[in-house]
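for the writeup, i need someone to sanity check this before i put it in the appendix. the sequnce is what the collaborator sent (i think, or maybe the updated version? ugh). structure was predicted straight from it, no edits. if anything looks off just tell me and ill rerun, i have time this weekend
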Amino acid sequence: MATFSPFNWFRSPQVEPSCRTALSVNPSLEAAVRDVSDQLRPTRHSDLALVFASTSYASDLPRLLPLLQQRLKADVWLGCVGGGVVGTSQDGRCQELEQKPALSVTVLSLPGATIQATALDTATLPDLDGAAQTWEDWVGIDAQQSRSQIVLLDPSSSGINDLISGLDYAYPEAAKIGGIAAPHNAPHGSLLLNDQVVNGAIVCSIGGDWLLDTVVAQGCRPIGPVFSIEQVQRNVLLELNDGERKASPVACLQRVLADLTEEERDRARHSLFLGIERRNLRLSADGQHAKDDGAFLVRNLIGVDPSNGAVAVAERVRPGQNIQFQLREANASRDEALELLKAAAGSAPQFGLLMACLGRGESLFGVPDGDVSIARQVMPDLPVAGAFCNGEIGPVGGATHLHGYTACWGLLRPVDPASE
Protein backbone atom coordinates (compact mmCIF):
# COMPACT_ATOMS: atom_id res chain seq x y z
CA MET A 1 0.00 0.00 0.00
CA ALA A 2 1.24 3.48 -0.83
CA THR A 3 2.44 5.36 2.24
CA PHE A 4 1.03 8.64 3.50
CA SER A 5 3.44 11.57 3.17
CA PRO A 6 2.22 14.45 5.34
CA PHE A 7 5.23 16.66 4.68
CA ASN A 8 4.42 16.67 0.95
CA TRP A 9 1.56 19.04 1.73
CA PHE A 10 4.08 21.71 2.65
CA ARG A 11 6.39 21.57 -0.34
CA SER A 12 5.65 25.25 -0.96
CA PRO A 13 3.48 27.83 0.84
CA GLN A 14 1.78 28.56 -2.49
CA VAL A 15 0.72 24.93 -3.14
CA GLU A 16 -2.80 24.13 -1.98
CA PRO A 17 -5.25 21.51 -3.25
CA SER A 18 -7.53 22.83 -5.97
CA CYS A 19 -10.00 21.59 -8.54
CA ARG A 20 -11.05 23.85 -11.40
CA THR A 21 -13.54 22.80 -14.05
CA ALA A 22 -14.78 24.12 -17.37
CA LEU A 23 -17.38 23.08 -19.92
CA SER A 24 -18.07 24.25 -23.47
CA VAL A 25 -20.71 23.32 -26.03
CA ASN A 26 -19.23 25.32 -28.89
CA PRO A 27 -19.23 23.16 -32.07
CA SER A 28 -15.88 24.61 -33.20
CA LEU A 29 -12.91 22.87 -31.56
CA GLU A 30 -10.78 26.02 -31.48
CA ALA A 31 -13.63 28.04 -29.97
CA ALA A 32 -14.35 25.31 -27.41
CA VAL A 33 -10.69 25.27 -26.36
CA ARG A 34 -10.69 29.08 -25.98
CA ASP A 35 -13.92 28.85 -24.00
CA VAL A 36 -12.67 26.30 -21.45
CA SER A 37 -9.29 28.05 -21.18
CA ASP A 38 -10.97 31.37 -20.41
CA GLN A 39 -13.14 29.69 -17.79
CA LEU A 40 -10.15 28.08 -16.11
CA ARG A 41 -8.15 31.33 -16.08
CA PRO A 42 -4.76 29.57 -15.96
CA THR A 43 -2.68 30.88 -13.11
CA ARG A 44 -0.35 28.01 -12.25
CA HIS A 45 0.86 24.57 -13.19
CA SER A 46 -1.51 21.67 -12.37
CA ASP A 47 -0.68 18.08 -11.51
CA LEU A 48 -3.42 16.43 -13.58
CA ALA A 49 -5.74 17.55 -16.40
CA LEU A 50 -8.77 15.43 -17.33
CA VAL A 51 -10.24 16.00 -20.80
CA PHE A 52 -13.49 14.51 -22.11
CA ALA A 53 -14.69 15.33 -25.63
CA SER A 54 -17.79 14.32 -27.55
CA THR A 55 -17.54 12.45 -30.85
CA SER A 56 -18.46 15.71 -32.58
CA TYR A 57 -14.76 16.62 -32.38
CA ALA A 58 -13.47 13.19 -33.46
CA SER A 59 -11.98 14.28 -36.79
CA ASP A 60 -10.02 17.06 -35.04
CA LEU A 61 -9.03 15.00 -32.01
CA PRO A 62 -5.22 14.97 -32.66
CA ARG A 63 -5.28 18.77 -32.40
CA LEU A 64 -7.17 18.91 -29.10
CA LEU A 65 -4.42 18.35 -26.52
CA PRO A 66 -1.79 20.48 -28.32
CA LEU A 67 -4.31 23.34 -28.48
CA LEU A 68 -5.13 23.01 -24.80
CA GLN A 69 -1.46 22.81 -23.84
CA GLN A 70 -0.81 26.15 -25.51
CA ARG A 71 -3.10 27.72 -22.91
CA LEU A 72 -2.98 25.42 -19.87
CA LYS A 73 -0.10 23.71 -18.05
CA ALA A 74 -0.30 20.31 -16.37
CA ASP A 75 2.13 17.48 -15.68
CA VAL A 76 -0.23 14.72 -16.88
CA TRP A 77 -3.02 14.97 -19.47
CA LEU A 78 -5.61 12.21 -19.62
CA GLY A 79 -9.00 11.67 -21.24
CA CYS A 80 -11.11 10.11 -23.95
CA VAL A 81 -13.93 10.55 -26.44
CA GLY A 82 -17.37 9.88 -24.99
CA GLY A 83 -20.79 9.09 -26.40
CA GLY A 84 -21.78 11.96 -24.14
CA VAL A 85 -19.83 14.30 -21.90
CA VAL A 86 -20.19 15.11 -18.20
CA GLY A 87 -18.82 18.42 -17.00
CA THR A 88 -19.07 21.36 -14.64
CA SER A 89 -19.01 24.90 -15.93
CA GLN A 90 -17.22 27.84 -14.34
CA ASP A 91 -20.38 28.89 -12.49
CA GLY A 92 -20.64 25.45 -10.85
CA ARG A 93 -23.46 24.06 -12.96
CA CYS A 94 -23.06 20.31 -13.49
CA GLN A 95 -24.43 18.77 -16.71
CA GLU A 96 -24.70 15.57 -18.70
CA LEU A 97 -24.53 16.51 -22.39
CA GLU A 98 -25.70 13.79 -24.75
CA GLN A 99 -25.68 13.77 -28.56
CA LYS A 100 -24.22 17.26 -28.90
CA PRO A 101 -20.78 18.91 -29.08
CA ALA A 102 -19.24 19.22 -25.63
CA LEU A 103 -15.76 19.61 -24.17
CA SER A 104 -15.12 19.09 -20.46
CA VAL A 105 -11.76 19.98 -18.87
CA THR A 106 -10.75 19.61 -15.21
CA VAL A 107 -7.38 20.67 -13.82
CA LEU A 108 -6.30 19.37 -10.44
CA SER A 109 -3.54 20.53 -8.12
CA LEU A 110 -2.90 17.74 -5.62
CA PRO A 111 -0.01 18.44 -3.24
CA GLY A 112 1.55 15.20 -2.08
CA ALA A 113 0.12 13.19 -4.98
CA THR A 114 2.11 10.65 -6.98
CA ILE A 115 0.63 10.52 -10.48
CA GLN A 116 1.85 8.21 -13.24
CA ALA A 117 0.15 7.49 -16.57
CA THR A 118 1.02 5.01 -19.27
CA ALA A 119 -0.38 3.75 -22.58
CA LEU A 120 -0.64 -0.03 -23.05
CA ASP A 121 -0.83 -2.12 -26.21
CA THR A 122 -3.60 -4.63 -25.47
CA ALA A 123 -2.87 -6.84 -28.49
CA THR A 124 -0.53 -9.02 -26.38
CA LEU A 125 -1.01 -9.32 -22.63
CA PRO A 126 1.16 -11.02 -20.02
CA ASP A 127 0.12 -14.48 -18.85
CA LEU A 128 -2.46 -14.44 -16.05
CA ASP A 129 -0.85 -17.64 -14.75
CA GLY A 130 2.54 -15.95 -14.51
CA ALA A 131 3.97 -13.77 -11.76
CA ALA A 132 2.21 -10.57 -10.67
CA GLN A 133 5.57 -8.82 -11.02
CA THR A 134 5.48 -9.55 -14.76
CA TRP A 135 2.24 -7.57 -15.03
CA GLU A 136 3.62 -4.76 -12.91
CA ASP A 137 6.74 -4.55 -15.09
CA TRP A 138 4.58 -4.54 -18.24
CA VAL A 139 2.37 -1.72 -16.96
CA GLY A 140 5.38 0.20 -15.68
CA ILE A 141 3.74 1.55 -12.51
CA ASP A 142 5.06 0.74 -9.03
CA ALA A 143 2.35 -1.09 -7.05
CA GLN A 144 3.64 0.47 -3.82
CA GLN A 145 2.90 3.93 -5.24
CA SER A 146 -0.59 3.16 -6.57
CA ARG A 147 -3.64 3.70 -4.37
CA SER A 148 -6.14 4.14 -7.23
CA GLN A 149 -6.19 3.80 -11.00
CA ILE A 150 -8.19 5.39 -13.81
CA VAL A 151 -8.44 2.84 -16.63
CA LEU A 152 -9.56 4.00 -20.08
CA LEU A 153 -9.95 1.63 -23.04
CA ASP A 154 -10.20 2.21 -26.76
CA PRO A 155 -13.28 0.49 -28.29
CA SER A 156 -10.94 -1.44 -30.62
CA SER A 157 -9.06 -2.95 -27.65
CA SER A 158 -8.81 -6.73 -27.33
CA GLY A 159 -8.60 -8.86 -24.18
CA ILE A 160 -10.44 -6.31 -22.06
CA ASN A 161 -11.55 -8.70 -19.31
CA ASP A 162 -8.09 -10.27 -19.13
CA LEU A 163 -6.54 -6.81 -18.86
CA ILE A 164 -8.83 -5.90 -15.96
CA SER A 165 -8.05 -9.20 -14.23
CA GLY A 166 -4.34 -8.64 -14.77
CA LEU A 167 -4.49 -5.16 -13.24
CA ASP A 168 -6.27 -6.60 -10.19
CA TYR A 169 -3.60 -9.30 -10.02
CA ALA A 170 -0.69 -6.86 -10.10
CA TYR A 171 -2.35 -4.05 -8.12
CA PRO A 172 -4.75 -5.75 -5.66
CA GLU A 173 -4.86 -2.77 -3.29
CA ALA A 174 -5.59 -0.15 -5.97
CA ALA A 175 -9.24 0.71 -6.64
CA LYS A 176 -9.92 0.98 -10.36
CA ILE A 177 -12.48 3.14 -12.18
CA GLY A 178 -12.93 3.88 -15.87
CA GLY A 179 -14.62 2.80 -19.06
CA ILE A 180 -14.53 2.08 -22.78
CA ALA A 181 -14.40 5.22 -24.93
CA ALA A 182 -16.85 5.91 -27.74
CA PRO A 183 -16.16 4.70 -31.30
CA HIS A 184 -15.99 7.07 -34.25
CA ASN A 185 -15.12 7.02 -37.96
CA ALA A 186 -11.88 9.01 -37.82
CA PRO A 187 -8.63 7.09 -38.58
CA HIS A 188 -7.21 7.26 -35.05
CA GLY A 189 -7.95 6.11 -31.51
CA SER A 190 -10.31 7.47 -28.88
CA LEU A 191 -7.92 7.92 -25.94
CA LEU A 192 -6.00 11.04 -24.93
CA LEU A 193 -2.64 10.93 -23.16
CA ASN A 194 -0.36 13.95 -22.75
CA ASP A 195 -0.16 15.34 -26.34
CA GLN A 196 -1.17 12.16 -28.20
CA VAL A 197 -4.24 10.25 -29.37
CA VAL A 198 -3.71 6.55 -28.63
CA ASN A 199 -5.35 3.13 -28.99
CA GLY A 200 -5.24 0.20 -26.59
CA ALA A 201 -5.54 1.27 -22.97
CA ILE A 202 -4.43 4.02 -20.62
CA VAL A 203 -3.77 3.49 -16.92
CA CYS A 204 -3.36 6.53 -14.70
CA SER A 205 -2.18 5.79 -11.17
CA ILE A 206 -2.93 8.11 -8.25
CA GLY A 207 -0.92 7.58 -5.08
CA GLY A 208 0.85 9.46 -2.36
CA ASP A 209 -1.59 11.46 -0.27
CA TRP A 210 -4.64 11.06 -2.57
CA LEU A 211 -7.02 8.30 -3.61
CA LEU A 212 -10.29 7.64 -5.42
CA ASP A 213 -13.19 6.19 -3.44
CA THR A 214 -15.21 4.06 -5.87
CA VAL A 215 -18.98 3.82 -6.10
CA VAL A 216 -20.66 1.49 -8.62
CA ALA A 217 -24.42 1.98 -9.07
CA GLN A 218 -25.78 -0.90 -11.17
CA GLY A 219 -29.29 0.50 -11.53
CA CYS A 220 -31.32 -2.59 -10.61
CA ARG A 221 -33.41 -3.81 -7.73
CA PRO A 222 -33.68 -7.46 -6.71
CA ILE A 223 -36.90 -9.37 -7.29
CA GLY A 224 -37.83 -12.71 -5.80
CA PRO A 225 -35.78 -14.90 -3.47
CA VAL A 226 -32.08 -15.65 -3.55
CA PHE A 227 -31.42 -18.95 -5.35
CA SER A 228 -28.39 -21.21 -5.08
CA ILE A 229 -26.95 -22.77 -8.25
CA GLU A 230 -27.26 -26.57 -8.18
CA GLN A 231 -26.15 -27.40 -11.73
CA VAL A 232 -24.40 -25.28 -14.33
CA GLN A 233 -22.33 -25.64 -17.49
CA ARG A 234 -19.98 -22.67 -17.85
CA ASN A 235 -22.49 -19.80 -18.16
CA VAL A 236 -25.67 -21.88 -18.60
CA LEU A 237 -27.79 -22.36 -15.47
CA LEU A 238 -29.45 -25.79 -15.41
CA GLU A 239 -30.92 -26.11 -11.91
CA LEU A 240 -31.51 -23.78 -8.96
CA ASN A 241 -32.43 -24.23 -5.31
CA ASP A 242 -34.28 -21.71 -3.12
CA GLY A 243 -33.67 -23.66 0.09
CA GLU A 244 -36.89 -25.61 -0.13
CA ARG A 245 -36.96 -27.15 -3.59
CA LYS A 246 -34.99 -27.55 -6.76
CA ALA A 247 -36.27 -26.42 -10.15
CA SER A 248 -35.12 -25.27 -13.56
CA PRO A 249 -34.15 -21.59 -13.87
CA VAL A 250 -37.16 -20.93 -16.12
CA ALA A 251 -39.52 -22.45 -13.54
CA CYS A 252 -37.94 -20.33 -10.82
CA LEU A 253 -38.27 -17.22 -12.96
CA GLN A 254 -41.93 -17.96 -13.64
CA ARG A 255 -42.55 -18.05 -9.89
CA VAL A 256 -40.79 -14.72 -9.47
CA LEU A 257 -42.74 -13.07 -12.29
CA ALA A 258 -46.05 -14.35 -10.90
CA ASP A 259 -45.53 -12.23 -7.77
CA LEU A 260 -44.91 -9.01 -9.71
CA THR A 261 -47.45 -6.39 -10.67
CA GLU A 262 -48.63 -6.21 -14.26
CA GLU A 263 -46.51 -3.09 -14.82
CA GLU A 264 -43.43 -4.85 -13.40
CA ARG A 265 -43.99 -7.90 -15.59
CA ASP A 266 -44.23 -5.67 -18.64
CA ARG A 267 -40.95 -3.97 -17.68
CA ALA A 268 -39.32 -7.36 -17.17
CA ARG A 269 -39.81 -8.11 -20.88
CA HIS A 270 -36.89 -5.81 -21.71
CA SER A 271 -35.24 -4.92 -18.36
CA LEU A 272 -34.64 -8.27 -16.67
CA PHE A 273 -31.13 -9.13 -15.44
CA LEU A 274 -29.42 -11.58 -13.13
CA GLY A 275 -27.40 -10.74 -10.02
CA ILE A 276 -24.50 -13.10 -9.26
CA GLU A 277 -23.17 -12.96 -5.73
CA ARG A 278 -19.52 -12.08 -5.32
CA ARG A 279 -17.85 -12.40 -1.93
CA ASN A 280 -14.57 -10.93 -0.75
CA LEU A 281 -13.50 -12.16 2.68
CA ARG A 282 -10.91 -9.83 4.20
CA LEU A 283 -9.27 -9.80 7.63
CA SER A 284 -10.11 -6.87 9.87
CA ALA A 285 -7.45 -4.45 11.04
CA ASP A 286 -6.74 -6.59 14.11
CA GLY A 287 -6.18 -9.60 11.84
CA GLN A 288 -8.65 -11.68 13.82
CA HIS A 289 -12.02 -11.31 12.15
CA ALA A 290 -13.11 -11.81 8.55
CA LYS A 291 -15.14 -9.08 6.89
CA ASP A 292 -17.55 -10.24 4.20
CA ASP A 293 -17.86 -7.75 1.34
CA GLY A 294 -20.56 -9.67 -0.52
CA ALA A 295 -22.41 -7.98 -3.39
CA PHE A 296 -24.42 -8.98 -6.44
CA LEU A 297 -22.78 -8.42 -9.82
CA VAL A 298 -25.54 -7.65 -12.35
CA ARG A 299 -25.27 -9.38 -15.72
CA ASN A 300 -27.40 -9.74 -18.88
CA LEU A 301 -29.59 -12.77 -19.49
CA ILE A 302 -28.66 -13.89 -23.00
CA GLY A 303 -30.76 -16.95 -23.80
CA VAL A 304 -33.34 -19.55 -22.77
CA ASP A 305 -33.62 -23.23 -23.73
CA PRO A 306 -37.34 -24.12 -23.56
CA SER A 307 -36.58 -27.83 -23.82
CA ASN A 308 -34.96 -28.05 -20.39
CA GLY A 309 -35.68 -24.67 -18.78
CA ALA A 310 -32.02 -23.60 -18.84
CA VAL A 311 -30.97 -19.94 -18.84
CA ALA A 312 -27.69 -18.51 -20.18
CA VAL A 313 -26.11 -15.52 -18.47
CA ALA A 314 -23.28 -13.25 -19.65
CA GLU A 315 -20.84 -14.43 -16.95
CA ARG A 316 -19.13 -17.64 -15.92
CA VAL A 317 -20.76 -19.10 -12.80
CA ARG A 318 -20.21 -22.15 -10.64
CA PRO A 319 -22.29 -24.50 -8.44
CA GLY A 320 -22.97 -23.12 -4.97
CA GLN A 321 -23.04 -19.47 -6.01
CA ASN A 322 -26.10 -17.44 -5.06
CA ILE A 323 -28.06 -15.59 -7.73
CA GLN A 324 -31.09 -13.31 -7.73
CA PHE A 325 -33.15 -11.92 -10.58
CA GLN A 326 -32.95 -8.14 -10.99
CA LEU A 327 -35.23 -5.53 -12.55
CA ARG A 328 -33.77 -2.37 -14.04
CA GLU A 329 -35.83 0.81 -13.66
CA ALA A 330 -35.36 4.53 -13.12
CA ASN A 331 -36.59 4.65 -9.52
CA ALA A 332 -34.37 1.74 -8.51
CA SER A 333 -31.42 3.44 -10.20
CA ARG A 334 -32.06 6.69 -8.32
CA ASP A 335 -32.51 5.00 -4.95
CA GLU A 336 -29.44 2.81 -5.32
CA ALA A 337 -27.18 5.64 -6.50
CA LEU A 338 -28.43 7.96 -3.74
CA GLU A 339 -27.82 5.39 -1.02
CA LEU A 340 -24.31 4.55 -2.25
CA LEU A 341 -23.29 8.18 -2.68
CA LYS A 342 -24.59 9.08 0.78
CA ALA A 343 -22.38 6.35 2.22
CA ALA A 344 -19.36 7.76 0.36
CA ALA A 345 -20.06 11.44 1.00
CA GLY A 346 -18.47 11.39 4.45
CA SER A 347 -15.06 11.21 2.83
CA ALA A 348 -15.46 14.89 1.75
CA PRO A 349 -14.37 14.39 -1.88
CA GLN A 350 -12.97 17.32 -3.82
CA PHE A 351 -13.87 15.97 -7.25
CA GLY A 352 -16.12 13.31 -8.78
CA LEU A 353 -15.17 11.30 -11.88
CA LEU A 354 -18.30 9.79 -13.48
CA MET A 355 -18.14 7.08 -16.14
CA ALA A 356 -21.74 6.26 -17.03
CA CYS A 357 -23.37 3.89 -19.49
CA LEU A 358 -24.86 5.24 -22.71
CA GLY A 359 -28.04 3.43 -21.60
CA ARG A 360 -28.44 5.73 -18.61
CA GLY A 361 -28.85 9.47 -18.99
CA GLU A 362 -32.13 10.86 -20.21
CA SER A 363 -33.19 7.56 -21.80
CA LEU A 364 -33.31 5.95 -18.34
CA PHE A 365 -34.31 8.81 -16.06
CA GLY A 366 -36.59 10.68 -18.46
CA VAL A 367 -34.95 14.00 -17.55
CA PRO A 368 -31.50 15.48 -18.20
CA ASP A 369 -28.61 15.26 -15.72
CA GLY A 370 -29.95 12.19 -13.93
CA ASP A 371 -26.81 10.87 -12.23
CA VAL A 372 -25.15 14.22 -11.53
CA SER A 373 -28.38 15.53 -9.98
CA ILE A 374 -28.40 12.58 -7.60
CA ALA A 375 -24.80 13.29 -6.59
CA ARG A 376 -25.55 16.97 -6.06
CA GLN A 377 -28.35 16.06 -3.62
CA VAL A 378 -25.68 14.58 -1.36
CA MET A 379 -22.68 16.77 -2.26
CA PRO A 380 -24.13 20.07 -3.53
CA ASP A 381 -20.79 21.65 -4.47
CA LEU A 382 -19.04 18.59 -5.91
CA PRO A 383 -17.32 19.33 -9.26
CA VAL A 384 -18.02 16.43 -11.63
CA ALA A 385 -16.57 15.42 -15.00
CA GLY A 386 -16.54 12.28 -17.10
CA ALA A 387 -18.04 10.55 -20.09
CA PHE A 388 -20.78 8.22 -21.31
CA CYS A 389 -19.09 4.91 -22.11
CA ASN A 390 -19.58 1.72 -24.09
CA GLY A 391 -18.82 -0.26 -20.94
CA GLU A 392 -17.85 0.90 -17.47
CA ILE A 393 -15.09 -0.32 -15.16
CA GLY A 394 -15.48 -0.53 -11.40
CA PRO A 395 -15.26 -2.87 -8.40
CA VAL A 396 -18.04 -5.11 -7.08
CA GLY A 397 -17.52 -7.69 -4.34
CA GLY A 398 -13.80 -7.08 -4.04
CA ALA A 399 -12.88 -7.44 -7.73
CA THR A 400 -12.94 -5.09 -10.71
CA HIS A 401 -15.41 -5.83 -13.51
CA LEU A 402 -16.53 -4.51 -16.88
CA HIS A 403 -20.16 -3.42 -16.53
CA GLY A 404 -23.12 -2.27 -18.57
CA TYR A 405 -25.90 0.13 -17.53
CA THR A 406 -23.93 1.37 -14.53
CA ALA A 407 -22.74 4.68 -13.15
CA CYS A 408 -19.16 4.22 -11.90
CA TRP A 409 -17.92 7.02 -9.67
CA GLY A 410 -14.40 7.84 -8.52
CA LEU A 411 -14.51 10.33 -5.64
CA LEU A 412 -11.14 12.03 -5.22
CA ARG A 413 -10.12 12.84 -1.66
CA PRO A 414 -6.97 13.22 0.45
CA VAL A 415 -5.91 10.19 2.46
CA ASP A 416 -6.97 10.14 6.08
CA PRO A 417 -3.74 9.57 8.07
CA ALA A 418 -5.77 7.84 10.80
CA SER A 419 -6.67 5.07 8.33
CA GLU A 420 -3.04 4.26 7.57
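The first helix runs from residue 29 to 40. The two ends are 9 Å apart (CA to CA).
thx in advance!!
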